[in-house]
Amino acid sequence: MAQVCCDSASAAAVVGPEAEVRARARAERRRRAGEAGRWKHAPAAAGTAEAATRKRRVEDGELLVARKHGAASVAGRRREMEDALSVHEAFAAGGAGRCDFYGVFDGHGCSHVAEACRDRMHELLAEELAAGADEEGPAAQRHPVAWTAAMERCFARMDAEVTSAGGRAAASASCRCDAHKCDHVGSTAVVAVVEERRVVVAHCGDSRAVLCRGGDGAAPVPLSSDHKADRPDEQERIEAAGGRVIFWEGARVLGVLAMSRAIGDGYLKPYVCSVPEVTVADLADGDDCLILASDGLWDVVSNEAACEVAHACLRRGREKWCAEAAALLTKLALARRSSDNVSVVVVDLRRKNH
Predict the structure, then answer these.
(1) Quick one: which H or E segment has residue 332?
(2) How many helices (H) and strands (E) in the chain?
(3) Between 20 and 30 A from 71 (CA), which of 52, 84, 140, 331?
(4) Cβ count near 207 (within 10 Å)
(5) Which residues make beta-bridge pairs with 88?
(6) Residues 225, 272, 342, 197: is their CA dihedral positive or negative?
(7) If you ran DSSP here, which 8-state letter would residue 154 be given?
(8) Rounded distance, CA 73 to CA 329, Å?
(9) What's the CA gap between 240 and 284, in Å, rounded?
(10) Does residue 301 contact residue 332 with C-beta atoms inside 8 Å?
(11) Does residue 263 contact residue 159 with C-beta atoms inside 8 Å?
(12) Spatial separation of the C-alpha atoms in residues 346 and 90, rounded to whole Å
């Protein structure tokens, strides 16, 4: 069950004196947060929703204002939580302007590959960007081709880490899978690096990134294309490598995996690869927000419906509208009978707020 940070109510009904004590405690937390000038964050983890309002901090002598964002993650109708979220502001040293990292990772078979991506992906990407800085110049001037190369190297290194020693190197202490089956575990990955006037999205698998634009009738802009096993170009690639797409409760690689690209899944290589597709998009003044989510949302909610929910929260004018949008999207997915874990990150892209 989801837990909403700061001022949410518990899923179980509480009445009597205990309810009054909890209400007073929530009011006191709100008062302290207001005095501090910002809402406190809960750590990005399974079963949480978080809000980030504007805060100021100094990074390498530069004054940065935090970008508003919100995240929510729920197990839903699954017995285990295998999704992971990642949010890291100003994650890459050097360069010009802000450079924030957001990621959604949807594990399958076990949670340890998604958790490894959550803990390591931003670090690997920062290393790749730093390694190429001397040749490519600062981040603000990095060419889209250079971004693609950096993302591909990052994903390859992440894949190598989780598949080393049959996947056991990435297994956490809470890993549920048998030692000899760790190479049967994998995760999708959709990551976004948001600069001042540009967003870079890299993905493998069927987690998705969507850009929501303001204005009446403005259509959402998909920044990724799901790697489904029956996508024509993906099916052709799989068959060229000697594999097959078998329809068993849907199209699956070798009748097993519904997605054609992922981090991990060593036993299905080379048919399932970790090479990401990368999109570099310039931001316009009318761009409102970016939505990253696992397929637990997109299986039952369209891009248009997701952006409508985000815009409705934005119009309410509340400071924590990103967190409200993320939480409402998870609730909408569950109401529409999503059978998977649901994880959502919403990032405010409006220039006037940063």
Answers:
(1) helix 321-335
(2) 7, 18
(3) 140
(4) 29
(5) 101
(6) negative
(7) H
(8) 10
(9) 40
(10) yes
(11) yes
(12) 17
Helix axes 144-163, 112-136, angle to 10 degrees: 140
What is the dihedral angle through the alpha carbons of 300, 305, 311, 315, rounded to the nearest 10 degrees? -100
Q: Are strands 3-4 and 48-52 parallel, antiparallel or unpaired?
A: parallel
Q: What is the pTM of this model?
A: 0.80
Domains in the chain with CATH codes: 48-227+262-353 (3.60.40.10)
Per-residue pLDDT of the chain (354 residues; tens, 9 = 90+): 443 333 333 333 445 666 676 777 777 666 655 543 332 333 344 333 333 333 444 344 444 456 899 999 999 989 899 999 999 998 986 555 678 999 999 999 999 999 999 999 999 999 999 887 656 555 445 789 999 999 999 999 999 999 885 555 555 556 667 665 677 899 999 999 999 889 999 999 999 999 999 866 789 999 999 999 999 999 999 999 999 999 998 999 999 999 999 999 999 999 999 999 999 999 998 899 999 999 999 999 999 999 999 999 999 989 999 999 999 999 999 999 999 999 999 999 997 654
The size of the chain, in residues, is 354
Contact 171/112 with Cβ under 8 angstroms?
yes
